[in-house]
Amino acid sequence: IIESAKNFLYISTESFTDPDIINILIKAKLKKIDVRILTGTTSMDFSDRMQNNLKSLLASDILINSTEQNLHAKLIITDKYLAVSSMNLNKMNLGFKKSSELWRENTETITITSDGEITEYAKNRYETLFSRCENISIVLASKIEKEVGKLFT
């Protein structure tokens, strides 16, 4: 779905912890695709990795916004598809990697539509929400400012 995008690629996900997904998004941006991401700024297990991934995306001129509210929505909107799912964008949730002896069959769900009317509606709603959220660079700068403050105290 991501690689099929021609004009725009809008993503909403709780967190970004997988570097391979980051590289795919950067490649999309290099193809002049309008890539926008709505995400949280923390991860329960991988906060440092998440921060580094967000910085890599920002360095690639990808627009990233965040909301103060809890964000658990997981969707991808392109000019061709709308995908709504329960999975985070990482290898384990996508079913590619066993992480331990406790691995279970992937139980995530996904619904995909190519209905233009539904996709256009989702795109417009996404753009409205995205415009109301804060640019993630401001959120990250605030976090860095707090860390620097702690170092000096």
| Lateral arrangement of strands in the main beta sheet | 6-5-4-1-2-3-7
Name the average pLDDT: 81
Annotation field: number of helices: 4
As a whole number of angstroms, the C-alpha radius of gyration is 16 Å
End-to-end CA span:
48 Å
How much of the sequence is in beta strands?
A: 15-25%
Q: How many strands appear in the DSSP assignment?
A: 7
What is shown here, in short?
With 153 residues, the chain is of the alpha/beta class. It contains four helices and seven strands. β2, α2 and β3 (63-66) form a beta-alpha-beta unit.
What layout of secondary structure does this protein have?
Layout: E1 8-13, H1 19-30, E2 34-39, H2 47-59, E3 63-66, E4 75-78, E5 82-85, E6 110-113, H3 116-132, E7 134-135, H4 136-152
Parallel strand pairs: 1-2, 2-3
Antiparallel strand pairs: 1-4, 3-7, 4-5, 5-6
Report on the structure:
With 153 residues, the chain is of the alpha/beta class. It is 39% helix and 20% strand. It contains four helices and seven strands, in the order βαβαββββαβα. Strands 6-5-4-1-2-3-7 form a seven-stranded mixed beta sheet, sandwiched between helices. A hairpin with a 3-residue loop joins β4 (75-78) and β5. The longest helix is centred in the C-terminal third of the chain and has 17 residues, at 116-132. The protein is elongated and about 55 Å long. 24% of the residues are buried. The model has no long low-confidence stretch (mean pLDDT 81).
